[in-house]
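Figure S7 source data.
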Amino acid sequence: MSAPASPSDSAFLRAARGERPDHTPVWFMRQAGRSLPEYRKVREGVGMLESCMDPELVVEITMQPVRRYGVDAAIFFSDIVLPLKAAGVDLDIKPGVGPVVASPVRTMADVEAIPELEPVHVPFITEAVRGLVGELGGTPLIGFAGAPFTVASYLVEGGPSKEHAATKAMMFGAPDVFEALLAKIARTAATYLEVQVAAGASAVQLFDSWAGALTPQDYRTHVQPHSAAVLSRAASLGVPRIHFGVGTANLLTDMGEAGADVVGVDWRTPLDRALPLVGDRAVQGNLDPTLVFAPTEVLTARAAEVIEAGRGAKGHIFNLGHGVIPSTDPDQLARLTEFVQSYELAG
Ligand code: 1CP
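Tokens for the predicted coproporphyrinogen I complex:
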């Protein structure tokens, strides 16, 4: 697919604004990363955080899937814990594990000890975004941040968690500490997004990957106000805001009302069921990421169902329902991209 003349004319931004582009735009969460041999090659011997702080490497890794697939948007290569690291929190991203925090946050004193992120902490982000915008031409760049609950889970648990038990124990048992923690992460996330948009990012995505662990009531009481604070600061930047979580069938309305222009839907909720829940907003998603392991004709038949369901939306950005699984064959994603971009939208 030939690149648009400028990001604002791109199918991605048109769909995000609720207009009708000439094809369904497509990109993939975690499109950069271990599924690509060229990524594994440039990452050899370089730590994850080190890579995120090296503008030249960030530009190269972000561009890799754009060159390979011709996707309709790039996503900035970084991680949701990067702004905390840049502000001075002692954490690392361990290969095969994910983010690991040296001293888990449990008390009000721990929360107070987390430094506030300031733009001066992340000059390498500005440099990388500027470099990317130059290379990308008309292809839009999506900036992103981790949402307060999901980032809090790493800080409180000390690393990846399935149950988020310590985090929720804090929410139930020490709501003042939880509130202060989420408010601080929200400020950090908003600052991080502001830096990316100021440098040229065309859209932002707030990843609340683990929000699906919450009941709607707990989400609304303890989490939504903080995500809304991030999205409200992002609103003044004038770029579309995508809000995504996993296992959020019960939360889609609340996630939209937090202030999203586009609601990301995971693969468990068919788009036709999601549409009435998100209201007058565009949607993003939501092919099951394991379908790449099925024969190509099964993959594309299911992709066609997603595109057809998306026709009823205010706008539809095609994506997987969560990130690319590292063992994915890149050739399947190339075929999928081609299929989505050439799918006949007329009629
Ligand atoms: O060494 C490596 O290659 C480490 C793997 C890796 C990568 C490629 C991690 C560690 N982070 C990333 C990059 C990353 N992280 C991107 C890049 C852009 C792209 O999509 O191409 C993005 C958007 C993220 C965001 C992120 N990090 C999320 C939200 C999205 C999601 O997948 O739900 C989360 C939850 C993280 C935490 C994280 N970082 C890394 C891992 C393995 C994890 C998940 C750990 C867990 O299961 O809790």
